[in-house]
Amino acid sequence: MLGLEKDTQGWSVSDQDSGAVIFPVVTRQGYNGEIQLLIGIDEQQRISGVRVTQHQETPGLGDDIERRRSDWITGFDGLGLDSLSPSGWTVAKDGGHFDAFTGATITPRAVVNAVYKALQYAAETPLPISSQEPTS
């Protein structure tokens, strides 16, 4: 469901107040091939962050998925599976919530789809998320 070719490891992270699971996701639906992501999901099954770790998208168009080029990727922060209707988990060109880039709809469409699938996975799979109790 996460697009991985083999079993892989995610990470459980926490501090005194909250916890999250960060796991890799791969979508093969990018314009020029695979887009590799790290997606963090917190205790309330909301996105704590999404970052692109590798891609081959077109410079100046599809590479706006990178945080250093654009803040577009931060638009997922705080969203949960039920934050939008299922049809909202698409790009605006398809009637959804997320903007696409001029001349590059395939790339954001692939990322939105991958994030949505990750949230669905988290809803169906027990994730090892826990916050630590403060110590006295």
Automatic annotation (TrEMBL):
<dbReference type="GO" id="GO:0009055">
    <property type="term" value="F:electron transfer activity"/>
</dbReference>
<dbReference type="InterPro" id="IPR010209">
    <property type="entry name" value="Ion_transpt_RnfG/RsxG"/>
</dbReference>
<dbReference type="GO" id="GO:0010181">
    <property type="term" value="F:FMN binding"/>
</dbReference>
<dbReference type="Pfam" id="PF04205">
    <property type="entry name" value="FMN_bind"/>
</dbReference>
<dbReference type="GO" id="GO:0022900">
    <property type="term" value="P:electron transport chain"/>
</dbReference>
<protein>
    <recommendedName>
        <fullName>FMN-binding domain-containing protein</fullName>
    </recommendedName>
</protein>
<dbReference type="GO" id="GO:0005886">
    <property type="term" value="C:plasma membrane"/>
</dbReference>
<keyword id="KW-0597">Phosphoprotein</keyword>
<keyword id="KW-0249">Electron transport</keyword>
<keyword id="KW-0288">FMN</keyword>
<keyword id="KW-0813">Transport</keyword>
<feature type="domain" description="FMN-binding">
    <location>
        <begin position="30"/>
        <end position="122"/>
    </location>
</feature>
<keyword id="KW-0285">Flavoprotein</keyword>
<dbReference type="InterPro" id="IPR007329">
    <property type="entry name" value="FMN-bd"/>
</dbReference>
